[in-house]
């Protein structure tokens, strides 16, 4: 009984396949819309394909593409070939006909919507550029006008203050001159008295010795009195006046400030990530704080400045703010965690090599979503300035392959590259200044790819590179960290080493550079790990 049922199912399946062959055009393999029958050999070809054959032949005869029989073209052309009505009815009643039409219609609608969206994006690009230019011109004009007004007010205030200075100095000069004139009159009177007494003293010096002895004390005392009258200290005060300029205190901004709202999509797909553009507050500056466990990877949020530290052996992730305060602790029960990063919307991303996936964790600890990647061995992750996810796959135990996978900010796969070039990437791939940078060959070189993933060159810096970081303050360069406790700065213009700094006193295990240009690093001292933040190294 079971064998009979099986034979029946096989017969039905074979029947459906034969029916599908009969209702499909042998040229384009699409279901017949208007099948035309060739009278000589009775083969059926759809109208569009038959029209193409006739136009290509450009003769009154052509070969049947199926059996090579010579077929004459009727006088009235393509319409002279009879339409196979039986085949038309068979197509209309064929299994899955309606479903195919529905799928084709849905596909057509999608392509039309896609074309409209692309057109809208192009038009909006132009409109945004024009409107931005207009607004920029208007704002610059307003700022310049306000600046001119402020300059005019400042000049007016300057003239007023200078008038006050002149009035003060004029009044003071008159008073000082009066004091000096009185002092000069007193001095002249003292000079006259002194001249007379000098004559008397000279006469005494020429007199008898016994008279001089008696007059000595009187003469010396008189000269001392005259000297006191010549003391000028009592008029030194004419220069001890105080006049100074006290700068006015300007509240708030001197000219004002530019206020701009962040860019936010008001409506759109729920999978769209809203990105806030504006100033970033990193909180107060800090120098160092200790880290529990053994950190294997860390990342700095481009939005909040928070720091995520992964301790892979304990399956734990710690989230700190820029002041060094522990904000959150995440504990994972399973998986092999290998790297951590921040998305543009401040979610923590964790790679799980055991399950070949990327975990998305919100700040409150809830799981946002997961990305599963097959036929690879995901080991590292980074997020570029565009919000794209850059995953690094490394072969292990004969599984996976060496390649880089790029996902859009909305977590949609974009493209993959590096399969024919990479051998064994040893750290996260980074995108910087139009190029992908991948530490390969266990750190022996850095492979450089362009924006589309085309291989460009290999950088051999002469040392084993443990990791690389992007110097955001200098867009044309990046930082390569050596395993020999040194840091080298490399320029992307000539791909040459600009300078090398030794870090023997503070051996750096991991390094990141935040958007403020500050160096955030993981160091180890006496078996204890610390997170260190400096303005420079």
TrEMBL record:
Record GO terms (molecular function): ubiquitin-like protein ligase activity; zinc ion binding
InterPro entries cross-referenced by the UniProt entry: 6-blade_b-propeller_TolB-like, TRIM45/56/19-like, Znf-RING_euk, Znf_RING, Znf_RING/FYVE/PHD, Znf_RING_CS
Domain RING-type per the UniProt entry, residue ranges: 25-68
Pfam families per record: zf-RING_UBOX
UniProt keyword terms in alphabetical order: Metal-binding, Zinc, Zinc-finger
PANTHER family in UniProt: BONUS, ISOFORM C-RELATED (PTHR25462), RING-TYPE DOMAIN-CONTAINING PROTEIN (PTHR25462:SF300)
Name recorded for this polypeptide: RING-type domain-containing protein
Native source organism of the sequence: Nematostella vectensis (Starlet sea anemone)
């Amino acid at each position: 009984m079971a064998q009979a049922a099986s034979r029946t199912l096989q017969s039905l399946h074979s029947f459906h396949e034969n029916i599908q062959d009969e209702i499909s055009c042998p040229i384009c393999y699409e279901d017949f819309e208007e099948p035309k029958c060739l009278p000589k050999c009775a083969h059926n070809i759809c109208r569009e394909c038959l029209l193409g054959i006739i136009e290509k032949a450009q003769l009154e005869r052509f070969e049947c593409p199926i059996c090579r029989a010579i077929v004459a073209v009727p006088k009235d052309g393509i319409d002279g070939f009879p339409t196979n009505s039986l085949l038309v009815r068979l197509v209309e009643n064929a299994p899955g006909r309606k479903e195919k039409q529905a799928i084709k219609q849905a596909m057509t609608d999608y392509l039309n919507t896609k074309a409209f969206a692309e057109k809208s994006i192009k038009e909006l690009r132009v409109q945004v550029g024009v409107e931005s230019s207009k607004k920029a011109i208007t704002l610059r004009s307003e700022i310049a006008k306000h600046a001119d007004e402020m300059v005019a007010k400042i000049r007016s205030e300057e003239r007023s203050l200078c008038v006050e200075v002149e009035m003060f100095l004029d009044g003071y000069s008159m008073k000082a001159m009066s004091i000096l004139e009185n002092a000069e009159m007193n001095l002249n009177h003292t000079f006259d008295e002194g001249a007379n007494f000098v004559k008397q003293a000279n006469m005494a010096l020429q007199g008898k010795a016994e008279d001089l002895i008696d007059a000595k004390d009187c003469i010396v005392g008189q000269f001392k009195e005259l000297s006191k009258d010549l003391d000028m200290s009592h008029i030194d005060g004419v220069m001890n006046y105080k006049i100074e300029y006290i700068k006015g205190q300007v509240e708030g901004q001197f000219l004002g400030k530019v206020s701009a709202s962040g860019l936010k999509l008001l409506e759109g797909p729920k999978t769209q990530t809203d990105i806030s553009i504006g100033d970033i507050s990193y909180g107060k500056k800090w120098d160092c704080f200790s880290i529990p466990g053994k950190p294997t990877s860390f990342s700095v949020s481009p939005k909040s400045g928070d720091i995520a530290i992964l301790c892979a052996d304990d399956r734990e992730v710690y989230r700190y703010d820029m002041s060094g305060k522990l904000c959150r602790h995440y504990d994972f029960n399973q998986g092999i965690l290998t790297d951590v990063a921040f998305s543009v919307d401040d979610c923590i991303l964790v790679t799980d090599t055991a399950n070949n996936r990327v975990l998305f964790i919100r700040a409150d600890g809830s799981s946002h979503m997961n990305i599963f990647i097959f036929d690879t061995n995901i080991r590292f992750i980074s997020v570029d300035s565009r919000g794209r996810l850059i995953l690094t796959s490394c072969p292990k135990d004969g599984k996976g392959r060496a390649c880089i996978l790029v996902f859009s900010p909305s977590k949609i796969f974009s493209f993959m590259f590096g399969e024919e070039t990479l051998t064994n990437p040893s750290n996260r791939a980074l995108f910087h200044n139009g190029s992908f940078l991948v530490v390969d060959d266990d750190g022996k070189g850095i492979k450089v790819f362009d924006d589309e993933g085309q291989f460009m060159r290999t950088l051999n810096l002469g040392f084993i590179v443990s990791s690389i970081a992007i110097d955001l303050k200098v867009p044309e360069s990046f930082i390569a960290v050596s395993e020999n406790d040194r840091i080298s700065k490399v320029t992307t213009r000539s791909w040459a080493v600009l300078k090398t700094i030794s870090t023997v006193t503070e051996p750096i295990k991991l390094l990141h550079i935040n958007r403020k240009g500050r160096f955030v690093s993981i160091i180890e001292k006496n078996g204890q790990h610390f997170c260190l933040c400096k303005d420079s190294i």
